[in-house]
Amino acid sequence: MAVTQADIDRAATLAALSFSEEEARRLVEEFKRVLSWIDKLREVDTEGVEPLTYVHQKGIMFREDETRPCPPRDDALRNAPQHTGEFFVAPRVRRS
């Protein structure tokens, strides 16, 4: 699979990232290198090898859910860098 500048531009747009032309050029080369490693892995003969579904024999150890009281609203808001009324204010992370 070939990686192009257009692929990097599209991924950057979807992830709300921006790159300089030099960074984007380097990313194209890095993605090509990673994809070549994946192609190399596809060449490995895995006949008779069981798929690995989880690295630990026992699986995930779950714990019981425990309800705990929430801190008072005023305490939580007092620790917030910015709030309006009863709500936290957070900076915009995605451009419109």
Find the count of extended strands (DSSP E, 2+ residues): 2
CA-CA gap between termini: 32 Å
The parts where pLDDT drops under 50 for at least 5 residues are none
The helix-strand sequence is HHHEE
Mean pLDDT across every amino acid position: 89
- CATH architecture of the domain at 5-42, by name, is Orthogonal Bundle
CATH topology of the domain at 5-42: Histone, subunit A
Radius of gyration: 24 Å
> How many strands, what sense, and barrel or not for the largest sheet?
2 strands, antiparallel
SS summary, helix count: 3
Determine and state the CATH class of the domain at 5-42: Mainly Alpha
Helical amount: 25-40%
Assign an overall shape. Answer: flat
Quote the beta fraction: under 5%
Spatially, the strands of the biggest sheet line up as 1-2
Counting helices, strands and paired strands, the structural category is mainly alpha
Question: What does it look like?
Answer:
By secondary structure, the protein is mostly helical. It has a domain at 5-42: Histone, subunit A, CATH 1.10.20. The protein contains three helices and two strands; from the N terminus they run αααββ. It has a two-stranded antiparallel ribbon. Helix 1 (5-14) crosses helix 2 (21-42). The radius of gyration is 24 Å and the shape is flat. The protein starts with a helix and ends in an 8-residue tail after the last strand. The relative contact order is 0.09.
Describe the structure concisely for a colleague.
By secondary structure, the protein is mostly helical. It contains 3 helices and 2 strands; from the N terminus they run H-H-H-E-E.
